[in-house]
Amino acid sequence: MNCEVCQLKELEVEHFEIREVLRCILHTIVFHRALGLVRPKDVDLELFEITYVQCGDIELEKKIDEKIEQFISWVEKHPNKKSQVCLSFFEEKNKQATWFTHKTERLYWEQWYINLNVAQHLKVHSGKSHNSKVVVDPGESALDERMARRAALEASLHEVLFQIIKFVNEKKDHVPPIPHTEGVVYFPHEITIPSSSDSAFGMDMIKRMLHTGHPTMLS
Amino acid sequence: MASSHGNTNSEAAKVMEQIITEFYAKSLHIILESRTPYMSSRNFSGERTLSSPSSSSSSSSSVRPRDKWFNLALKECPAALENLDLFCSQGHFEPVVVDVIMVQRPLDCDLVKCSPKRDLTRNSSLKERYPYCWNYEQDEFGCDAKSEKIIERWVVQYENRKIRDTNSGSRRSSNNNLSTLYKKSMLLLRSLYVTVRLLPAYKVYRDLISSGQIWPFAITHRVSSFAENFTCREEAEMQRFGFTPVDTAGGRLCLSVLYCLSLSDVSSEPSTPMSSQLIPDYVGSPLTDPLKRFPSLPVTGTVAHAHPSSSPFSRRHSWSFDHYRASPPSVSFSPSPTYSEPHTLISNPGTRRFQPKTLPPHPPETSHVHKKDSTFDEYCPSPAVSPSQSSAAPSLPIFIPGSHPSKPLLQSESAPVSEPAAKLANFPAYSNKLNFPVRGTGSGSFKSCKTTGFSQPGTAVEKLFSFGKDEARQYSGVKSSSSSRSFPDDFDDTEFPCPFDVDDDDVTDPGSRPESFDKHVPLCEPHEFEGLFTIKKSQDAAVGALVQMLRKAPPLRQDHSNSVNLSQAGRPEIWSNCSQEPNRSSEGQASVQRAGSSSIVSSGLISSKTTADALRELQGYRDMKNSLIGKGSKPHI
């Protein structure tokens, strides 16, 4: 099975925008890959004039939020870096069982790369900041600039969402058959963020691929 | 369904037919659900349609049969299924064209019908009027005239390709074909679900379903199997997005949309125009209270001519309440529109209001102010202010604050208005394949609540300035009570930077006044007014000035031409018109005298009035004077 890869347009975000932006993108992607019975839930972004759709699955929501928090803390520790969040969909297949092991193999069939460039100078609030960066004054004059920047980000985010839609539309053949398992809503997936060890992102990905994941659904 | 294992071709064909039929239904459901306020899945407010608890949570509870199709559970949307058979019957699939239409009521729809304050409607700008037009009431009156614009055109289509493409199909088993078709349809529908929420029309829809405002437009839709072609111009304004077709054994399922790129101009209208109106009313109300006491003043329900004076007064007051207090004489009391005008001019470019007869009550100028604010309050008051029945100038200020403003506010608050309308409106979307425009009532939304604050700097300006519901209520309450004090204070808050800032500047800058004044209100001179304002600081003086102003007001209007002629000295002009015998007799205060003297100079103008008029006015002014003096003297003591 071929693995389709989608590189999403890079977004330049401020620290406090990361959460919303990532939620919006991740949920939108997963919604397109939730082929079980879903009751869509509309969510209006607070920072942008954008409404995105969630599957309405609480577990999924939690999972995504956790990853986002991890990512945010990573960003705080690694300022000035372009970062990438990867959402991968896979199928799990049992490997030939050996004597003592029951291994599953992940067959990745799709990967989404969300590229973020966190603007450091605008990093704000969040009591968490460990290495508080010098916060360049967001003075009065900066207000206009910020608004313009926000509008630009909104447009870019909009673009990214359409990029997702187009990709989903154009690439359908690689999507596995619909899971028939009761209660299974979405395909197994994982969200990968840069590791805290600062190791190369790709290496981290490889490590994770070697791990045995939890069979979320879809056997 | 899709998983059915029918081996025979006929079975497979049937299943495929069913899939396509359901695809039609689901597509329409998704589109209409997010474009017609009545069916809104977002419109939870305890509405009827969504009886099932299914609406919010995903995995729980009841699953209707149709929810299982494509594994997409949607809220009920009966209209989406109506007449579906007209498009899908026995293996024959007609294209379905869904036009999403934005409808605006024409200005001609008289507010009169809608609200008791009809007179006011005249003056109001088009935009201002709009909101009311959409009231349910109005619908009853049958204001049919409206402007429509197709903002989206969705086309769901099954293209039969038996003829030429038969050979292209692979030799897969029918089961595979069906499951693939089903899966791809599912993916397409999910894309559709997301896309529908990303298009500009969704924002409009969202505004409509959220409560808090009445909008001058509504969204309706029309479902048919054919569509008129767009003109080149129309098409140029639209963008096309085509979903990748889903191939079937005998054809392909196509879904596309043509949509307007920008609807912001339309959707933002309601808020902008309203704002300007509000400000004046607001201001006026607080000050007007004291005025109400005077019996002499004509306080009719309707505002005379929509004298600009009233609105300016109010505005000014609202702006600098403290200021007002310090120098009571200057602004607050002058029942005569003329005095207030200078202030208004300063604050609002819309000096035209003041011109009693020639100019329409609602100057277009005000619009710019509106643009800044999408405040609820502003919106409401406008209608009240604009038109005036009675020609008597003085009455205006009083009136506006008391009666009109409150009303509009109430209306706006009563977003529920939309609900009834919605209920009434039918959505026979498909019937007859003809157009079944469903009129939605626009209920404004206060996004501002959500977005306001620094956290959302990026949000539109409107958000920043819009009021929250609570605020609106608060204000409305104030208005109704006509407590002048509370208002100004509230407005002083930085929250409403735009309008207020401007006003303050204007007030402080004498320079600006003359210009506006000259243009629009020849009768009064800003400088004069200013002079009074600065020179007289004692309350007595202020009272005197007030009295004079009151006296002068009516004559000014009458002697419009005269006043213009007296361009030399701004004051003299003003006063001359107003000046009357009572002036001298009334006030002995020096400061007041000043103004009085000017008036005396121009006293010749007085002659224009009839004695009866003069006597009547005199009487009224005396009463007013007495009460004012009494009031003014208290603090001194």
UniProtKB/TrEMBL annotation, chain A:
Keyword Transcription: no
Residue intervals passing through the bilayer: none
Tree of life domain: Eukaryota
Organism of derivation: Malus domestica (Apple)
InterPro entries with a match to the protein in the record: ATG101
Record-given protein name: Autophagy-related protein 101
GO biological process terms on file: autophagosome assembly
Gene Ontology MF terms: protein kinase binding
GO cellular component annotations of the record: Atg1/ULK1 kinase complex; phagophore assembly site
Family the UniProt entry places it in: Belongs to the ATG101 family.
Entry-linked Pfam families: ATG101
Keywords per UniProt: Autophagy
From TrEMBL, chain B:
GO biological process: mitophagy; piecemeal microautophagy of the nucleus; protein localization to phagophore assembly site
Region (Disordered): 43-64, 331-393, 477-520, 554-607
UniProt xrefs under InterPro entries: ATG13, Atg13_N, HORMA_dom_sf
Chain intervals with Acidic residues compositional bias: 489-508
Superkingdom assignment: Eukaryota
Matching Gene3D superfamilies: HORMA domain
Pfam family, one: ATG13
Keywords assigned by UniProt, alphabetized: Autophagy
Keyword Disulfide bond: no
GO (cellular component) term, any one: Atg1/ULK1 kinase complex
Compositionally biased residues, Low complexity: 51-62, 331-340, 381-393, 596-607
Biased composition (Basic and acidic residues): 365-375
Autophagy-related protein 13 N-terminal domain ranges (all copies): 20-259
Polar residues bias spans: 576-595
Name by which UniProt lists this protein: Autophagy-related protein 13 N-terminal domain-containing protein
Organism of this sequence: Malus domestica (Apple)
